[in-house]
Amino acid sequence: MLTQLLTLKTRLGIDEFEVKDDALLTNALQAISDRFDKECDRTLARTVDIQQEFSADETELRVACYPIETVGQFELKGNEIEGWVQQSGVKFLVRRRCVISLAARLGSWCEQGRVTYTGGYVMPGNVPGPGQVELPHDLEQSAVEQAAYWYQNRDHLGVIREWPKGGTYQQFVDLDLLPSVRSVLRKYERWNG
Question: What residue ranges do the domains of the chain occupy?
Fold first, then answer.
């Protein structure tokens, strides 16, 4: 998850020993983490030995989980009978920790390539090791604020306006993602040119 439960509870002013809504808050954080991945078209959390397929005639691989930590192996598949065949001596360059540039194509347009690599951000609560990158603070804070907003307005989800008898007319803003959150997420979108 993009933040820890205790961080969200602190933001909401909920005592850490008050566990009544812990499951609800944990599920909200997981849903928001998944939503951020979808909005950015990438996997933000560090993933070990993730495999990504590509057309074998591509030489610029825009990976889905970065920053890239290590690149393990390349494989090529020309047909289903032989399956994946590991390729040795593949020359490549990792650029800006998010693109793998191959010196030559692995194969032709009718073949499939696959790369195995480790990448992504180390999530809060874990200590980054050598070569690893911790989750940027603005992403974590955005997740906290989005979860807090959802929690504080969960009773009004789907309600556009309310006019209680003898009360004040209320019109609710229809916000899917907070504008500040959407602005932060734009910085972390995966480029798919």
Answer: 5-44+130-187, 47-119
